[in-house]
Specification:
The chain is 32% helix and 39% strand. The chain has 151 residues and is α+β, with helices and mostly antiparallel strands. Strands 1, 2, 3, 4, 5, 6 and 7 form a seven-stranded antiparallel beta sheet that branches. It is globular, with a radius of gyration of 16 Å. The N and C termini lie far apart (33 Å).
Length: 151
């Protein structure tokens, strides 16, 4: 299973991230995970959201440049060595990780590590063969991180 990562290209200046989060807020799209990489003049904001198609439509309508890419959302144990088990397997199988980020679903129990790789079919097959579970867009949208936290 794979999920769709949205990548938004924006000028590296104050207000661009607020513009994007405002677009997604008005469209009622929930951000599940994000990373930002910048150079001196431009940046890329990668997002995992609960409704990728709605997000893309809203972002394009507002005039921002957006693309989508399939990535693998791997469920790992949220404990020391949980991520290492996955990365050691990827290394052993010569899978290069181009981009990655993660978030905790249930503290000290479950986390999600999102990986972007060149050969997604091979990586997905090896990840699942190694016993890891992966999420698709619907499953990722349905998760409720931090449900244990009492705010």
């Amino acid at each position: 299973m794979t999920v769709h990562q949205i990548s938004v290209f924006a000028e590296n200046k104050p207000g661009q991230l607020a513009r994007l989060t405002g677009i997604l807020s008005r469209a009622k799209v929930n951000i599940r995970a994000t990373t930002i990489a910048t150079t001196a003049t431009f940046g890329v904001i990668n997002l995992i959201v609960d409704d990728p198609q709605k997000a893309i439509k809203a972002i394009k309508k507002d005039g921002m440049m957006v693309t989508t890419k399939e990535v693998i959302a791997v469920i790992i144990e949220d404990k020391p060595g949980g991520l290492d088990k996955l990365t050691q397997m990827l290394f052993k199988e010569n899978i290069n990780v181009n981009n990655a980020y993660g978030f905790v679903l249930d503290s000290w129990k479950t986390a999600v590590f999102v990986v972007e790789v060149d050969d997604i079919a091979k990586a997905q097959r090896l990840i699942e063969k190694a016993g890891f579970k992966t999420l698709d867009d619907d499953a990722l949208s349905a998760v409720e991180p931090f449900h244990y936290v009492k705010y």
